[in-house]
């Protein structure tokens, strides 16, 4: 299956279990890989037939800011569902990292995969 991806998308949002975290914005870094048949938009050079990574990047930041939660697991799960439902994405892998959460770690986070990678195009 072909993929459209967004790597290292840095967003500022309210996220965290502790009370002090609910008063501030913190950095999250998102990596997203989305299954998509990229041959179809390439046939006639049409943005409307692909996953617009620019539009989706904006929607991810908006979604996180509209849906403050305690756990990055919860954000990952809800964001994956939103993306699948909104863009009809058959399969995605989503990584949500919180780089400033553990001071002596480079980063921490979660990675989830949702949907099916079963081939749904004619391109093998
Ligand atoms: N697996 C997780 N562990 C922790 C989370 C989380 O979202 N998932 N969150 C916190 C706190 O919010 C932390 O980021 C504060 O530094 C702790 N562990």
TrEMBL record:
Record's function text: Catalyzes the conversion of 7,8-dihydroneopterin to 6-hydroxymethyl-7,8-dihydropterin.
Residue span(s) of domain Dihydroneopterin aldolase/epimerase: 4-114
Organism: Colwellia hornerae
Alphabetized NCBIfam families for the sequence: folB, folB_dom
Gene Ontology CC terms: cytoplasm
Domain of life: Bacteria
Pathway assignment: Cofactor biosynthesis; tetrahydrofolate biosynthesis; 2-amino-4-hydroxy-6-hydroxymethyl-7,8-dihydropteridine diphosphate from 7,8-dihydroneopterin triphosphate: step 3/4
Gene name as annotated: folB
Protein name, entry field: 7,8-dihydroneopterin aldolase
Family, similarity comment: Belongs to the DHNA family.
An example Gene Ontology molecular-function term: isomerase activity
InterPro entries, A to Z: Dihydroneopterin_aldolase, FolB_dom, GTP-CH-I_C/QueF
Protein EC: 4.1.2.25
Enzyme class: lyase
Record's catalysed reaction(s): 7,8-dihydroneopterin = 7,8-dihydromonapterin; 7,8-dihydroneopterin = 6-hydroxymethyl-7,8-dihydropterin + glycolaldehyde
Alphabetical UniProt keywords: Folate biosynthesis, Isomerase, Lyase
GO BP: folic acid biosynthetic process; tetrahydrofolate biosynthetic process
């Amino acid at each position: 299956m072909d993929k459209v991806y967004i790597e290292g998308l840095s967003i500022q949002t309210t996220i965290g279990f502790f009370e002090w975290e609910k008063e501030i914005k913190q950095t999250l870094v998102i990596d997203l890989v989305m299954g998509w048949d990229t041959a179809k938009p390439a046939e006639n050079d049409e943005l409307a037939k692909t996953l617009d990574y620019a539009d989706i990047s904006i929607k991810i930041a908006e979604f996180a800011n509209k849906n403050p939660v305690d756990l990055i697991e919860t954000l990952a799960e809800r964001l994956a569902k939103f993306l699948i439902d909104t863009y009809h994405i058959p399969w995605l892998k989503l990584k949500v990292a919180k780089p400033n959460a553990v001071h002596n770690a480079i980063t921490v986070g979660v990675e989830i995969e949702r949907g099916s990678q079963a081939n749904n195009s004619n391109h093998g």
